[in-house]
Design goal:
By secondary structure, the chain is α+β, with helices and mostly antiparallel strands. The protein has 5 helices and 11 strands, in the order αβββββαβαβαββββα. It is globular, with a radius of gyration of 23 Å. It starts with a helix and ends with a helix.
């Protein structure tokens, strides 16, 4: 009797092993859109006069804040317009090379994400110096080389000093101001800022927090999935 039960038991286990992956695949394919929770969109937004229809209901469109198509100068002395970065996610951070407090931690956090996604063409990294007087093209070039950044994938950039602090404060909504003591120092945010392919802000992450950098990694994958779903 026991000899007959043993093969049946093994067959049941085998059927379960084969069935579970198929069921999970079905759930991801058939139910994925219902179970998927998109990331928030940060910044001011306005209700448009246009509508879209969902399940027969007219819903007003929302116009979300987008980072403008500003021009940067890269460590290779090239011009980089943000509007030219299309169909890619962008991870943004602010820094300046003389800073020895926040900048090393920020760069280490960015590098950990860069190493994880350096072969993925859907994400790009831009580190923005808030001290163009000090961080010349040659300084940025040497700094990027020291960090191990790859131009075109992880760019170190700057822009006109009269515009850059305004960009941080009024477009990215993070602190970046000159210190009250005139020592060429700045008070600025350590946050990494994740933009989607439409240049909308989808997340802020403290570079000093291991948990938040882990969360950033996960949320990049969420946004990659969001972008892939747009491809028909």
């Amino acid at each position: 009797m026991s000899k007959n039960k043993f093969p049946i038991f093994k067959i049941l286990i085998l059927v379960t092993i084969l069935a579970v992956p198929g069921f999970l695949y079905y759930m991801l394919q058939a139910k994925g859109k219902n179970r998927y929770k998109p990331l928030p969109i940060f910044g001011p937004k306005i209700v448009a006069s246009t509508f879209h229809t969902k399940k027969g209901v007219k819903i007003p469109d929302t116009i979300y804040h987008k980072i403008p198509d500003v021009n940067f100068i890269t460590s290779n002395a090239d011009s980089l317009n943000l509007g030219s970065v299309k169909k890619q996610l962008i991870l943004i951070n602010f820094f300046y090379s003389k800073d020895q407090l926040l900048t090393p931690t920020i760069n280490q956090a960015v590098k950990s994400i860069f190493e994880e996604f350096k072969e993925n063409k859907i994400i790009r990294f831009i580190s923005i110096s808030i001290d163009p007087a000090q961080d010349s093209v040659s300084v940025l070039r040497n700094y990027a080389k020291m960090i191990g950044a790859k131009p075109g994938k992880w760019d170190f950039v700057t822009m006109d000093s009269s515009k850059i602090l305004n960009l941080a404060k009024n477009q990215f909504f993070v602190n970046a101001i000159k210190s009250s003591e005139d020592k060429g120092e700045y008070i600025f945010s350590d946050k990494l800022i994740l933009l989607d392919a439409d240049h909308r802000i989808r997340g802020y992450y403290a570079s000093s927090s291991v948990d938040e950098i882990s969360k950033l990694s996960d949320e990049i994958k969420v946004l990659i999935t969001e972008e892939l779903r747009k491809i028909k």
